[in-house]
């Protein structure tokens, strides 16, 4: 079903199950969002997340739960959070989930605010808007993975945000996708196939210590 070795899948791969994993992952993210409240720490939020996963019948994590609050929202995936950060009354946070349902990998992320935080809210919305813009470019222009991230960088700058170049997207598949060594979407020289790649976007404010993150599966009928 794919043209390139980096888009290899396992014998049990099923696009419908990929969509199921995506939907369940988004449901989990919204369930965690409902449990976020001023004063909560990142570790406490992860404990709440585990309860949501159990309710949804998640099989396992394929990457650790990432919940970043306030100044930690400018951290990349592999950077540890500054300790003892708690959600303020007027604040920003993001959730990044890598969950397995029915043997297939979901990977979703979004950013939210609490209280009165207009600059942070604008940043969160900008990450969603940029993701939609880049996904539309994939759909309508057939850009390669490399071209998609070059486009994302230029659009982020035009929008007035700093683009995180360390975030380049990646493969998903039937678990575990890592055996196929698909690498980063931002290094893929071909047009990415549908339902196989996660487009990740991370931006930050040009001068203030906060940022936003959004990710979702590249599909033609995103909803």
TrEMBL record:
| Top-level taxon of the source organism | Bacteria
InterPro entries from the UniProt entry: Creatinase/aminopeptidase-like, Pept_M24, Peptidase_M24B
* Keywords from the named record: Aminopeptidase, Hydrolase, Protease
Question: Which residue stretches belong to region Disordered?
Answer: 1-20
Gene Ontology MF annotations: aminopeptidase activity
Q: Which residues form the signal peptide?
A: none
Q: Peptidase M24 domain spans which residues?
A: 17-217
Please give the coiled-coil regions recorded for this protein: none
Give yes or no: UniProt keyword Protease. Answer: yes
Protein name as it appears in the record: Aminopeptidase P family protein
Q: Which organism is this protein's natural source?
A: Dyella acidiphila
